[in-house]
Amino acid sequence: MENEYYSQENHGPYSLFELGDFQLECGRTLADCQLAYSCFGELNSEKTNAIVFTVMFSGTNKAMEKYIGKGLALDPEKYFIVVPNQLGSGLSTSPHNAPPPDEGPDFPQISIGDDVRAQHRLLTEKFGVKSIDLVLGWSMGGQQTYEWCVRYPEMVRRAAPIGGTARTTPHDSLYVEVFCEALKSDPAWEHGRYTQPHAVELGLKRLAHVFALMGNCTEFYRQEKWTDLGIASLDGYLSGFWETWFKPMDPNNLLCMASKWKRGDVCAVSGKSLKDTLGSIRAKVFVIAFTQDMFIPLTDCKYEQEMIPGSELRQVPTLWGHFGMLGLAQEDFDLINSILSEALQSPCAA
Amino acid sequence: MENEYYSQENHGPYSLFELGDFQLECGRTLADCQLAYSCFGELNSEKTNAIVFTVMFSGTNKAMEKYIGKGLALDPEKYFIVVPNQLGSGLSTSPHNAPPPDEGPDFPQISIGDDVRAQHRLLTEKFGVKSIDLVLGWSMGGQQTYEWCVRYPEMVRRAAPIGGTARTTPHDSLYVEVFCEALKSDPAWEHGRYTQPHAVELGLKRLAHVFALMGNCTEFYRQEKWTDLGIASLDGYLSGFWETWFKPMDPNNLLCMASKWKRGDVCAVSGKSLKDTLGSIRAKVFVIAFTQDMFIPLTDCKYEQEMIPGSELRQVPTLWGHFGMLGLAQEDFDLINSILSEALQSPCAA
Fold this sequence. Notes:
2 copies of one chain form a homodimer.
Chain A: H1 8-11, E1 15-23, E2 29-40, E3 50-54, H2 61-64, E4 80-84, H3 112-126, E5 132-138, H4 140-151, E6 158-162, H5 170-184, H6 201-215, H7 218-222, H8 234-246, H9 251-263, H10 267-270, H11 274-279, E7 284-290, H12 298-305, E8 312-316, H13 330-345
Parallel strand pairs in A: 3-4, 3-5, 5-6, 6-7, 7-8
Antiparallel strand pairs in A: 1-2, 2-4
Helix pairs in contact in A: 3-4, 5-6, 5-9, 6-8
């Protein structure tokens, strides 16, 4: 189904890596599977200066690229930085653009492991990367970051999961369930068999409101911080910020990503307990948590961080909560950038 | 519309106080309006040993009565304790039981002020109460408690709003909006014109899930505290606890209460700023906050408490979060009971 939102104009420039017929963990195969990515800087001759910056729910490479630039921690004059989109994200092979028999609601179930295996192929087959200086990502990007550490321990020297967990908690799982329920409550959803790309507008608005409810902290609301964006009212914030973000997107794409999120669990690949799985991580890990995050709370991040040998916990105390990563407050952007600098400069195993 | 849930069997014994044709703040009149209440103990001859225990969203007198008993803070051997139900709660005159032209979705808009004016008439006209030793209430009961303090300062000697605010915050308002949206998303809702009492089952389930998402703290979920109730799984907790609570209720009743909640504001009666309104309170106020409450957070409670002269802040640090008031953990019940004892023993004006 055509959806003009998922375009080079809105999210590019990005490239497509051909995965061919890609075998998924669920047992099905995605024919002619494509992984969308952007990249910055040059790979050195030893092929050891790569950074992998994974992407969150509902986002694309474009959403994270503000953290990449000359003079920033993620400096393309020093590093070769790859930003791989998720499968199902809208730019990679996704429900909205897959041909039959995989289109729309018939798209196969994807896992975080599928994403990371696809990214690993991009890094190794396309670029010949030997080792990675830093894997990072926010929210679902944090899930992919942990998956990288566990699945490819020999490649990942440092990692920075930001507002993300290695294993989805029951509360976070409920959060995903509630916003999916909100999306699917729209009768126009028709179990995913809508025939117009923007038919499910009401469901997307309801989903947006659930994100608003949990996305920032309560103090953000009491202080009416939307005025910092030049928005005058709560209603203006809901419509102009949250609804505007989600409304152009494809519902089946979002549900594909949400399903991955809900099932996220690094123990699936290790076959061990969470303690043993996180305990086996060899990368130097900087766990970055938003102090007032309501759905990936500090306590959940800290709980996992304490199981990772030699890891560090860093907090971002923004009223933006989980969405502090958007860096809409300059001090949040600066703090996250400085933590990433610290991570990149820290010693790590080989 | 008949709904067997709202019965003496389930919620009694309770009595009905005839308010007659009750003039509402919205300008409309509820004909033959009835206020349901329960009471315990005896009024002393000076008519000064009353306690008013107001009721939360979706609850009735029955839900709060576990805090009343011999040897507890709310001891009927010492106090005359009245538990007035909300208008719209299902036992008082409510959308589901009002005759035309006020039935169902045509029920008039009620305010917290209407509730408290009705309760004041019950206390003064029916019982001749002169002064009140303690007004208390949880959640929406906290809203009514603040309203009592501001509206009838000459009567209220002490007050204990528990997990409730004097003015609904923007975030709390969004929370109410999201759970109402969940309820109304069910096509069977039909803008309130459903014709079977339990037609809106799907909407009530969705509302229940939003309550689950915000009702306890995230750590409650990570620790799977539902096992303390003998429930084995998250799904079992959602269905056996939250859905079971809401499913028998009337959607229009819930929406009536939710609308009050959303508009709750003690400044409506004072016509002054929040600072000046709370600053004028003469009662000795114990603000009780649940440390990990996600929708009436400690910060919002503290913000208001600091504006009230001579007030005290007490915290209940339970993983049950907002729903710590249910007292399902014995230590929560004991702590709340002890704070109420402290409040009742504290000196106060007049």
